[in-house]
Amino acid sequence: MQIRDVCELVKQAKPLIYNRDMAEQIKVKGPADYVTQVDTNVQKFLSEKLYELNPHIQFLGEEEGLHAMTADTFWILDPVDGTTNLIHDYQHSTISLGLYEKGEIIMGIIYDPFREEMFYAEKGKGSFRNGEPIHTALADKLEDTIVAVGTAPYQKQFAHENFERFERVFMKCQDIRRTGSAAMDLAYVACGRIGGFFESRLQPWDFAAGMLIVAEAGGKVTRFDGTAVKPTEPGSILASNGKVHEELEKLL
Q1: All domains of the chain, ordered by start, with CATH?
Q2: pTM
Q3: Which terminus of the chain, N or C, has less C-beta within 10 A?
Q4: DSSP string of the chain?
């Protein structure tokens, strides 16, 4: 199985993302947590296509929810990372697909259909954007870069704690950004557009692909306390170019 074949499958979902009628068919999963018919259809389309590509690999998708898998190899898909953005036609939504094998992510793909940007990586082979190698930002200090933040909108009871973190980072870096798609933010860390990204509570489908793409681009991904990230466990994510990681860690 070649990564280019998987990328082509992911690209085929673009018309589904662009379907505004489906984007307006919305169900509420929880506070500030929505699913549209786009999410459902993209997941169905890709799960079927990935099965055709390799029927031996199991599948974990966001719209199924997190559950124990019975195999040591499976896909981890977020069909629309940035569903709230999609609902409002705020065009910052991505498809995020990671391949998990025996405790680690070995393939990661993040596709932005609005800008036709395909970020991807295989373990040990580097990271790429539309076929060109990418690398993390050169900044040695926070004051030389910008940082993206995630607001953890599903747990607004932690807003005060989170916004205190944002302020601490804001005072040390050039500026902060908020796209509303963790996968996009991780891709932007990988290609050097931002020096770092953090969010206090993310699910595996939010970061599985991105954690590999960042690492293969020369960056670093940990929990807020610096511990290793297990790809199947939800929790905090801190990603950076590696050089500003310790500085961010202390602020968080």
Answers
A1: 3-133 (3.30.540.10), 142-251 (3.40.190.80)
A2: 0.96
A3: N
A4: --HHHHHHHHHTTHHHHT-HHHHT-EEEEETTEEEEHHHHHHHHHHHHHHHHH-TTSEEEEGGG-S---SSSEEEEEEEEE-HHHHHTT-S--EEEEEEEETTEEEEEEEEETTTTEEEEEETTS-EEETTEE------SSGGGSEEEE---TT-GGGHHHHHHHHHHHHHHSSEEE--S-HHHHHHHHHTTSSSEEEEEEE-HHHHHHHHHHHHHTT-EEE-TTSPPPPTTS-EEEEEE-SSSHHHHHHH-
